[in-house]
Amino acid sequence: MQFDPHYHPYPSTTMPIYAKKGMVATSQPIAAQVGRDILKQGGNAVDAAIATAACLTVVEPCSNGIGGDAFAIVWLDGAIYGLNGSGPSPEALTIEEVKQLGFDSMPTTGLMPVTVPGAPASWASLSERFGKLSLLDVLQPAIDIAEEGFAVTPTISRQWKMSYNRFKKQHTAEEFTAWFDTFSLHNRAPEPGEIWRSPNHAKTLRLIGETNGRAFYEGELADQIDAFFKKHNGYLRKEDLAAYEPEWVQPIRTNYKGYDVWEIPPNGQGLIALIALNILEALEIGEKESVETYHKQIEAIKLAFADGKAYITDEGHMSVPTASLLNKTYAAKRAAEIKDQATLPTVGKPVGSGTVYLCTADEEGNMVSFIQSNYMGFGSGLVVPDTGVSLQNRGHAFSLDVNHDNALAPKKRPYHTIIPGFLSKDEKGIGPFGVMGGFMQPQGHVQVVMNTIDFLLHPQAALDSPRWQWTEGNKVLLEPTFPRHIAEGLARKGHEISVANDVISFGRGQIIWKDEAKGSYVGGMETRTDSAISSL
């Protein structure tokens, strides 16, 4: 990977971090330290990833939880593996049932959008296949922190408070009581520096560790989840949990200017990033800070999202194969649709023939790209009483249009926003990267990849670069630090430009690259949140 380690053209003066033996990068300092400690105890990159992920359910509950989903890309001994840890809809949930209850779209919170949580099974599956330490040993630091408590960090406090205040107004029904019992401190969200404990969370993590995850899907925890949904007339049942296993998959890739960019295949939206990169490769890209470059990036993302939102769902239900959407000839045709002015995105017709983020690396060259989420902050707003299990709301992404690829159906996985990324070249792993944040994620992946490959920025500069986010139509949201002259130029091209008041909408990323020539790792962390890199 070529870049100038001293060049940093953006306001932050943070330099990249280097390490000899290993590295853990994530959005919360305590979690990064936990991953590093696991490496020091003899664990590998997979063990460190699981430990960090479990810790994040404790120290960043406003972004993820035990009741969420996970995806992973693992580079181990020179081979790449993918894990889809997203769960399907309950067997009893149908479009007809939802419409009979008066809904014309899937609700955002409550009992109905809860799908089978995949995170605990993902931890267990990763540990069993690739880990060196026992799952209980790897989860022990998170258990200790949940029992003893931790000092809440500023960004987490802010996000926690936003969710708490919203839930307090919206969720007065009995099924939401346990959420407030779990996540309140003195009848409010915790302030920065206050100590928050979750003994029920610790108990649940211990059960997961002792049973290699089975307590969550077949044992005591499954019984508690089943009883909670039966009591409140929900749909998730113990049978849905018992039937679940995460799926090992072959990651999908595209070659972008000599580099292989890897993503998890659908139902994840990583395919969108690859479609956009294929389109951009077919275009002439000039210097980074030019109106033309940003215009082409935005238009390519719009076209990629149009296809992604039309076709991405549980892969067996897609009407257009993934390979067709990644066809380079198709990408060239889509690139030809990009004009000098902003246009509304349209769905293409290819010919037949795609939160919290963390990354880890160890002394043996193994690397993990891992992402985990409840969706929309605290997810469904539900906690299973006496467990600390905050449940996701991934079913919200389903369509109620029976003709749509992503239509709700029993035991089906929905379109999923969380995506881990990985970069390699000439069959050698370069490293993991990711940018969390809903529909910002594939846009963040494209921006980070181009900052790295096209503009030769080091990992920290690639992350610090001011970001843009296409939202809908011709609307584009810019960070406060985005160059004003570029924003004005984009407006003249027909983009409906608005500048955000803060950086919360633009994702939070982490990068670790392996430098084969120097025998070290180099990492970048997200300065938009409480991120940290711990290295050996």
UniProtKB/TrEMBL annotation:
<dbReference type="Pfam" id="PF01019">
    <property type="entry name" value="G_glu_transpept"/>
</dbReference>
<protein>
    <submittedName>
        <fullName>Gamma-glutamyltranspeptidase</fullName>
    </submittedName>
</protein>
<dbReference type="InterPro" id="IPR043137">
    <property type="entry name" value="GGT_ssub_C"/>
</dbReference>
<dbReference type="InterPro" id="IPR052896">
    <property type="entry name" value="GGT-like_enzyme"/>
</dbReference>
<dbReference type="InterPro" id="IPR029055">
    <property type="entry name" value="Ntn_hydrolases_N"/>
</dbReference>
